[in-house]
Design a protein that fits this description.
Largest sheet: none
Strand content: under 5%
Structural class: mainly alpha
Radius of gyration: 40 Å
Number of helices: 35
Distance between the termini: 90 Å
Number of strands: 0
Length: 609
């Protein structure tokens, strides 16, 4: 999979069409060289005949070739004859030879004569000298004549001064005339504007984002590798993965390490980890820390911990703090607590919030609560939702309820499910049922079975009592609270399973009730086992009911013990009945204990008679 051609073979990315072969390119180059040689001969003949324009063109040709001595004589002769293009090119030649001031003199002559290129060169010269007013004047002269480089240089100067309006105007002018860097920078400006959502105007932000994409596309089409990278990012977010991959590939082949890294993640998500590793390797070798981390994670998953550690260290060397954090995780998984703490600290001191949270957890497990709290606080203040929740747990463990609630609320506001559950429970204890419901809904929606159960109990307490039904009657429509009970039950919440069984039984749905009671009982619920026994006994399966009552009684269920005492008493097994009655007395509750005591005494009298 290391052969890059195989990436096209996957069919995930479109291969650019119409690319010339090496033989075709060589033939084209030979043809161009022959044509240039013929043109040079023609120009020299014209120069010998005193053609000023030919002198200027021949001087420019030799200048491009690097023949400064040959170019200078022709350019000076053409300049002396009044050719402004020759004056501009003579300035370029002198500038390249290190005679900047003399070059500026010739550029001024050409610019005054109307050369936009010379005005651009003169503006650049003054900017390099720090004379910004003069630079702006000449760049403006160049830009207003339609010179694309002049427009771009003027935009760059105005942006440096903080003139955003003027800068955008000329950057747009340069981009519209085909300047790829201008197109890219204009796209970046529009992208930032879309991200700011000035004044909350979502429509304006959306328009800016759409226009930014268009300019990224133009820059990328003209070979701008960062433009291709940003275009790929936009397309990936939108789910257009095939086209995103094509632009990432284009950018990566042009040497953009971030694009190679992004292409690696795209390939990994598509299931092609081998090709992903190829691109991550290329990006990591070019100094991309994110790619080095990805390689480390890939080798860690394969159990190649030494190689993983090497890549995590490479990520650190590239300035990526995730490398130290990942090294900490790797050491923690291996039980190397001291080394894990060392790496967590390194990342945490660099401001890595998840490393701060991990370090705090490590210290807390070691019994250093005082050392853990500041790191939890640092991580939480930096935006770590888990750290905010952990601070809530820390304060709750000290019975500092108000402080705990404050951190739980902060974590809940950021979408932490368990934090929302804790806030909901606190609101319930405080009697604020409406607020409790709001937080419980958030937690239940986030997948918390306990929150779904608690929400169901809140809703259950509000609904009017349902009319009684006999077993076997048609089932009624389920209420919202039953739906939440069922959601919790389906996630394995035993009390919810028992409650769903009870509601099903109340509707007359014996099969459904038995299913939920059995599921709860098999998971260890003594109430589930007791209720299943009641259901089975009512259906005439007392022997099986006894099995479940015995399981419930052994788990401490007093009513189940009483039921067993009654069953054995009815069968004439008085000693066994007395034993279960004794257990029921000890287990309670009070009314069960009283009935069990009376039964026990009666059985005792029978046994002693």
């Amino acid at each position: 999979m290391g052969d890059m051609a195989s990436l096209f073979g996957t069919g995930r990315f479109a291969q650019p069409s119409g690319q010339p072969s090496d033989q075709e390119e060589a033939a084209d180059e030979a043809q161009e060289a022959a044509e240039e040689a013929a043109e040079e001969v023609r120009l020299r003949l014209a120069v010998d005949g005193g053609d000023v324009e030919a002198m200027s063109v021949l001087g420019a040709l030799l200048l491009r070739r690097g023949d400064f001595d040959g170019a200078e004589s022709h350019l000076r002769a053409a300049t002396a004859a009044g050719d402004r293009a020759a004056a501009n090119n003579l300035g370029v030649l002198l500038h390249q030879r290190g005679y900047a001031d003399e070059a500026a003199g010739w550029w001024r002559i050409a610019a005054v004569a109307g050369s936009a290129a010379a005005a651009h060169a003169l503006g650049r010269h003054f900017r390099e000298r720090g004379d910004e007013p003069a630079a702006e004047y000449w760049l403006c002269q160049s830009a207003e004549q339609g010179h694309v480089l002049g427009a771009y240089a003027l935009a760059d100067l105005l942006e440096h001064r903080g003139d955003d309006t003027g800068s955008e105007r000329w950057m747009r002018a340069a981009a519209e005339r085909g300047h790829r860097e201008a197109a890219y920078r204009l796209a970046r400006t529009l992208d930032r504007r879309a991200g700011r959502r000035d004044g909350g105007d979502d429509e304006a932000a959306a328009l800016a984002a759409d226009e930014a994409e268009q300019w990224y596309r133009q820059a990328a089409a003209r070979g701008h590798r960062r433009g291709a990278l940003h275009l790929g990012t936009i397309l990936e977010k939108r789910g257009e993965l095939k086209e995103a991959g094509r632009w990432y590939l284009t950018s990566a082949k042009d040497g953009e390490a971030r694009a190679a890294c992004a292409l690696g993640f795209l390939l990994r998500d598509a299931g092609d980890t081998e090709s992903a590793a190829v691109w991550w390797l290329r990006a990591a070798q070019d100094g991309d820390g994110n790619a080095a981390n990805a390689l480390g994670a890939l080798h860690a998953e394969r159990g190649e911990t030494q190689t993983a550690e090497r890549w995590y260290r490479a990520a650190m060397d590239a300035g990526d703090d995730n490398g130290a954090y990942n090294l900490g995780l790797l050491c923690a998984e291996q039980g190397r607590t001291t080394q894990a703490e060392q790496w967590y600290r390194r990342a945490a001191y660099a401001g890595h919030r998840e490393a701060s949270n991990a370090l705090a957890i490590l210290l807390l497990r070691a019994g250093d609560e005082a050392g853990a709290e500041p790191w939890f606080s640092k991580a939480a203040e930096a935006g770590s939702v888990d750290a905010a929740f952990n601070l809530g747990i820390l304060h709750a463990g000290r019975s500092e309820e108000r402080a705990a609630l404050r951190w739980y609320e902060r974590a809940a506001a950021a979408g932490h499910t368990e934090a929302a559950l804790q806030v909901g429970m606190a609101r319930l204890r405080g009697g604020d049922e409406r607020e409790a419901e709001r937080f419980l809904r958030c937690a239940a929606g986030g997948g918390s079975a306990e929150a779904a159960y608690r929400l169901a109990t809140v809703l259950d307490a509000r609904r009017p009592p349902a009319p009684a039904h006999e077993l076997g009657e048609p089932a009624q429509e389920k209420s919202e609270c039953e739906e939440w009970y069922e959601r919790a039950a389906s996630q394995g919440h035993r009390r919810a399973q028992v409650r769903v069984g009870m509601l099903a039984a109340a509707r007359g749905d014996v099969v459904e009730a038995a299913r939920w009671y059995r599921e709860a009982a098999e998971a260890g619920s003594r109430n589930g086992a007791f209720n299943l026994g009641l259901l089975l006994a009512r259906e005439g399966s007392e022997p099986e009911a006894v099995v479940w009552w015995r399981r419930a009684a052994d788990a401490g269920h007093g009513r189940a013990a009483l039921r067993l005492a009654l069953v054995f008493a009815r069968r004439g097994e008085l000693a066994e009945g007395q034993r279960w009655a004794d257990l029921a007395v000890s287990l309670g509750p009070a009314e069960v204990g009283e009935r069990a005591a009376r039964l026990r005494d009666a059985l005792r009298q029978e046994l002693s008679a």
